[in-house]
Amino acid sequence: MIAEIFKKFNKIYDNGSIFQDLMDNEELFPLTLKLKTLTQKDIVENFLTIKKEIEKLQKTELHIEYKEFKFKGIGSQKLPFCVTCRTLEKFLKFIEKEEEYERYKIDYCKAVKEFPKLKKLFSDKPKLLLEIKLQLDKILQITAFYCANPKPNIYIRELPLRGIDTKFIEKNKKEIDLFLMCVLDDDLYDSNIAKLSNNGFEKKYNLKYKLPLVRFRILDSDLYLGGLSDITINIEEFQKLDFTCKKVYMVENEITALSFPAIKNAIVIFAKGYGVGLFKDVRWLIDKEIYYWGDLDMDGFAILSQARGYFPQIKSLFMGKEILEEFIDLGVKSSNKSYKKLLHLTEDEELLYERLFSDYYGENFRLEQERLPLLSKIFVK
After folding, report:
1. Is 252 exposed, middle or buried (0-12, 13-18, 19+ CB in 10 A)?
2. Which is higher by pLDDT, 75 or 195?
3. I want to staple 246 with a disulfide (CB 3.0 to 4.6 A). Which of 52, 82, 265, 321 is the partner?
4. Would you state the torsion angle of the CA atoms of residues 141, 145, 148, 153, taken in this order, to the nearest 10 degrees?
5. Which DSSP letter does residue 317 get?
6. 229: which DSSP letter?
């Protein structure tokens, strides 16, 4: 019985209704709980245990209501039917949450006094203050900074916040986001951004961020930029290039990109595996002849499918069954694999993908592209 009541009280505490009462100045107490009805079998098999439980219950500060139950085999029994907790103080004492609740009250009053608009946030998410605990002071400091400087246009590392390092902001973006959305006016942040990863937080709150870098090699000396062939620039600059080449090779591994031979009207991009998503908005690639060369494994085909989703004209390079079987002795075992339905593979590519999944060529088979002596087969045209 004690365990049953403790569990139910904790459930009430965990759903936040206790804190909702604090914010709305409402009163949940007295709080009455109906107890589980005991069967004759329960009583007969656990008589001494039930007797001790009732004695423990009687020693608590809960008000107990009894009801007489009639059983065929053991006659009438007067048993606890429900219990009533008359005050919040007794409720907290029973579940040993006095200190935590008191901390909550202090934090709530402090936060709402500084930013009255936060009352709505805590009303919608009554357990939020418990979840952030010791981070509250820092989050309030960040909130205050943004109220004074709503469009800082600087990097996170440049934020003049005493005692707050950038790792704190990185680890608590979700909570900081909730505070800022509640406190700031709608025109001071981008409400259309919901995803905070991939610099979403920075974009939403007018912060600078490091743009991803793209490394590519120009394979035709007539197209060199200022005499340069091996170039690394950020993605925004890459999008603006509008390069005049006809062919674009995307490769999964850096060594392969560095080893590419000279090819007329062509460049090779180090796409960094699943990093191909970086190029989905590069519009000048739309009318290029694009080839993708990745590892001959399940991830390689998943990346190929992803890339072809952005640019349907992409052709795979050296990713066929004949190549795999010719160099099968160079294969290794990958650490793991996972299957997903790929929407942008050719019939032959999909067959090879299914074979890799079924371990047709060996358990977790992988043939890494840089191990293949194939670059000499790419001819200048």
Report:
1. buried
2. 195
3. 265
4. -170
5. S
6. -
Q: What is the DSSP string of 40-84?
A: HHHHHHTHHHHHHHHHHHHTSSSEEEEEEEEETTTEEEEEEEEEE
> How much is the mean pLDDT over the chain?
90
Q: Which residue has the tokens 């090819």?
A: 263
- Please give the pLDDT value at position 350: 96
Query: Rounded CA gap, 307 and 289, in Å?
Result: 13
The mean per-residue pLDDT over the stretch 50-61 comes to 81
- Arithmetic mean of pLDDT, 220-226: 95
Query: Residue 197's CB: how many other CB atoms inside 10 A?
Result: 7
Neighbour-count burial of 303, counting CB atoms closer than 10 A to its CB (0-12 exposed, 13-18 middle, 19+ buried): buried
**pTM score above 0.85:** no
Q: What is the CA radius of gyration of the chain?
A: 33
What is the Cβ-side half-sphere exposure of residue 381, based on CA atoms within 13 angstroms?
Answer: 7
Rounded Cα distance, 240 and 8, in Å: 61
Q: Residue 275: which of 241, 242, 235 has the closest Cα?
A: 235
Pair 250, 242: CB distance under 8 Å: no
Q: State the helix-helix crossing angle for 347-357 and 298-310, rounded to 10 degrees.
A: 150
- Of 86, 83, 88, 91, nearest in space to 9 by CA: 91
- Give the separation between CA 268 and CA 256, rounded to whole angstroms: 9
AA letter at 186? D
Q: Write out pLDDT tens, residues 162-211.
A: 889 888 998 999 999 999 999 999 999 999 999 998 899 999 999 999 99
- DSSP letter at 260 equals P
In the predicted structure, residue 374 carries a pLDDT above the cut 90: no
Element (H, E) at 90: helix 88-94
CB 71 within 8 A of CB 43: yes
Strand order in the sheet with 213-218: 230-234, 213-218, 266-270, 247-251, 289-293, 315-316
| Partners of 215 in beta bridges | 232, 270
Contact 51, 77 (CB under 8 A): no
User: How far is Cα 267 from Cα 241, in angstroms, rounded to an integer?
Assistant: 13
Which is it for the CA torsion 221, 226, 228, 231, positive or negative?
negative
Give the per-residue pLDDT at 234. Answer: 95
